[in-house]
Structure formats: structure tokens, C-alpha cells
Specification:
By secondary structure, the chain is an alpha/beta fold. 38% of the residues lie in helices and 21% in strands. Strands 1, 2, 3, 4, 5, 6, 7, 8 and 9 form a 9-stranded mixed sheet that branches. Strands 11-10-12-13-14 form a 5-stranded mixed sheet, sandwiched between helices.
């Protein structure tokens, strides 16, 4: 029996998932891995089967939704633990073994979430969440929780008053990295397929709590590029996202007064429209903005020519400079981080994901955010949160 079964649902992100799989195999080489493809129609299935013969690739032939696709692989999983993982993630080497070690030592823990960070190292607030009871959801959706981010009353949704670098109890584990005891899944069942996308992680987390388990946050790092397979400027995105909150509310909180239920649903409806409008305004601003960034590549000298060729196709990364590695990321970059450097590209054949992710996170904590690029000699590709080359 493998220690962990990793389940990844893929939709039109074959180069992101390629990088994701390389990172998972570094972290747990003996993992049982399933990729469920939701009809990407971009050659992903054949591509992944050829690249990763040790991975079981399941071709759905249709977009079955996030929960249903995960459940298909869950029926085949044999590990003591199951990791539901987004394809647009990079896992540090210590992260999955750290979760296994913690769960082995804490049999009362049903699910674990980790420290998620974006491509610039910035901490992702959804790494830690409370159950969105009507009051918690109300303070969050009205923006009051953001205004009073250190309040234990108003900021409970994202638990932003807690130290993000310490282990803590949480209610909701993000579906981007959801590490669950198989025994708990045997009791609760998998994802509720009434949720097509979004909300199913909240529902499953809640059902695990109802079985008497604890859910925990561990400050172990992953990168989450945040929805590379989702068109966030479409009304359908806003509708599916906020309708999921209504499904959850109707399923678990019908006991609340009718007046309060109407109030919550009104706020959800307003957020649905405002999210759609806001995302489109932001998208137009991004189209007009200049996102070009001066970049620095640190890696093996024999890779310089290949990386320079890739960067010549980039719309974002410009004016590349090249540095050979020394002892670790910090030492390699010392003396080369000029004020105009806005993006740093790392050779993953030299540096571990552990040290790269920690370096990015530390810089973001100092309000020095750089766009992270990862170059893999195995795939011959360079990936950032903006593009794949």
C-alpha cells in the first residue's frame, strides 16, 4: 500500500501539470498518481501518458466537473492518504513527506492544508479558512473582514489574525492542496457532485469535521498559480463560484431564519455581479498595462543558450542577464539583484523547490516581490504565472 495517492484534475494546462508532476515525483517518488483529464482537447492525455508512464491518466472525454472527476480517481486510490492537488501548482520537496509525518503522528487529524503562495511569493489567504457560516460569510463578502484583518470576529473567514508561519487548527482545507486521511474519506465519501466547481472543498472539509476529526494548517510550501485553467472574465465563472456558496448554505444552514437566509443570498447575488464586472475591468487594465519585466536567470552555463532562446519568445520577460549558481539561492544571487530586476528565473536542475519557494516567500514578506520563473531541463520549458515558454 503506498503512503499517498495523488489525484490531479486537468483541463487545458498540460505544461503546468507537467511541472506539477515533476515536483510531486521529487517529493514522493513512490506515490500512486492519477491524472483525470476533463476533455482538454489539446493533446494533454497523449502528452502525459508519453511523458509519465508511471502515472495513470484517465481520459474523461467530457468536462465532468471538479468533484466528479476527483471521485473517479478516488474510487481507485489505495494510499493511506489521498492528496487532491491542482494542476497549476508546484510542490516543495518537504511538503508531502511533512504532511505524511504529521498525519501519522496525529490520528485525530482528518485533513491538512499547507502554505500556498502565488508566483511572486505572496501568501495566499485561502491557505487557511473558517467554515463560512452565514455570519462569517457576511463579514467576508461585505469587505468588513478585509478592513479589520486582525479582528477575531470580522476576519474569521481567512483567519488573517493568526501567524501564517505557525501550525494551527482550521475548518476548511483548500481544494488546491487537500491532504486527507483515506479512513476519513471512507466515512464521509468523496466530493459532493452537486458542486460543479468551487465550494466542494468547503463541503468536504465540513463533513470531515462532522465525523469528529480535526483539520489543520501546516506552514509547508507550495506555489499555486491560481486558476490557470479558468476564464475569470466570464459571467459563468462568477455564477458558478457564488452559486456554490448558495448550494453550501442550502445544504448545511437551512436552520437559520428565513430573513437572514434572504440577506445572505442577496449579498451573494451582489458579489456575483460585482465580481464579473470587477474581473473584466481588471482584465482591460491588464491589457493596457506594461507587464514587461527585466529578468535574471540563475542556472547552469550549458543551459544559457536554451533559456535565451525561450526568453526571445516571451511577451513579459525582457533584458535577460545570466548568472551561474553558487552555494544556494541566496549566495548565488548576492551582488546580482540590481534595482531594476523584476523577475528571477531558477534552474530546477540546480536548486530544490524547497529553497526557491522559501526564498520567494521571504522576499514577498519583505515587500520585495519578484516574478518567479522555473526552467526545467527535463522538459526544456520555462514557466511563470503569466506564460509558458
Amino acid at each position: 500500500m503506498p503512503a499517498v495517492s495523488v489525484i490531479i484534475v486537468s483541463y487545458k494546462v498540460r505544461y503546468y501539470i507537467e511541472q506539477c508532476l515533476y515536483s510531486v515525483l521529487r517529493s514522493v517518488p513512490d506515490a500512486e498518481i492519477f491524472v483525470v483529464d476533463n476533455d482538454s482537447a489539446d493533446g494533454s492525455v497523449e502528452f502525459l501518458r508519453k511523458r509519465f508512464p508511471q502515472v495513470e491518466v484517465i481520459d474523461n472525454g467530457c468536462n465532468a466537473g471538479f468533484g466528479k472527476a476527483n471521485n473517479i480517481a478516488l474510487a481507485k486510490a489505495t494510499g493511506r492518504y489521498v492528496l487532491f492537488l491542482n494542476p497549476d501548482t508546484v510542490v516543495a520537496e518537504r511538503t508531502i513527506p511533512g504532511c505524511i509525518e504529521y498525519m501519522d503522528a496525529h490520528p485525530d487529524t482528518g485533513a491538512v492544508g499547507v502554505r500556498m503562495q502565488y508566483g511572486d511569493g505572496h501568501f495566499a489567504l485561502e491557505s487557511r479558512r473558517s467554515l463560512p457560516t452565514p455570519s462569517v460569510a457576511f463579514w467576508h463578502m461585505t469587505g468588513i473582514g478585509r478592513l479589520f484583518s486582525h479582528s477575531r470576529v470580522f476576519a474569521k473567514y481567512h483567519l488573517s489574525y493568526l501567524d501564517r508561519d505557525r501550525e494551527c487548527r482550521i475548518d476548511v482545507v483548500s481544494g488546491a492542496y487537500m491532504f486527507i486521511r483515506k479512513e476519513a474519506l471512507d466515512k464521509t465519501g468523496g466530493f459532493d457532485e452537486a458542486f460543479f466547481m468551487y465550494g466542494e472543498d468547503i463541503d468536504l472539509s465540513y463533513r470531515i469535521l462532522q465525523q469528529g476529526y480535526n483539520n489543520c494548517y501546516l506552514p509547508l510550501p507550495i506555489v499555486h498559480y491560481k486558476g490557470e485553467s479558468t476564464n475569470k472574465t466570464s459571467y459563468r465563472y462568477a455564477k458558478v463560484f457564488y452559486d456554490a456558496m448558495n448550494i453550501f448554505f442550502d445544504k448545511h444552514f437551512k436552520r437559520y431564519s428565513r430573513l437572514f437566509a434572504v440577506l445572505v443570498k442577496m449579498v451573494v447575488g451582489v458579489k456575483k455581479i460585482s465580481t464579473y464586472v470587477g474581473q473584466n475591468i481588471w482584465a482591460r487594465r491588464r491589457m493596457l498595462a506594461d507587464f514587461r519585466k527585466n529578468c535574471l536567470y540563475v542556472g547552469r552555463k550549458e543551459t544559457f543558450a536554451d533559456v535565451e532562446r525561450l526568453l526571445s519568445r516571451s511577451d513579459i520577460l525582457i533584458n535577460p542577464r545570466f548568472v551561474e549558481p553558487r552555494d544556494g539561492v541566496e549566495d548565488s544571487l548576492r551582488g546580482f539583484m540590481a534595482d531594476d530586476v523584476e523577475a528571477v528565473i531558477f534552474d530546477t536542475g540546480v536548486f530544490s523547490y524547497d529553497e526557491v519557494l522559501d526564498w520567494m516567500y521571504a522576499r514577498a514578506s519583505e515587500n520585495k516581490r519578484y516574478t518567479m520563473g522555473l526552467y526545467s531541463g527535463e522538459s526544456g520549458r520555462l514557466i511563470t504565472e503569466y506564460e509558458t515558454l
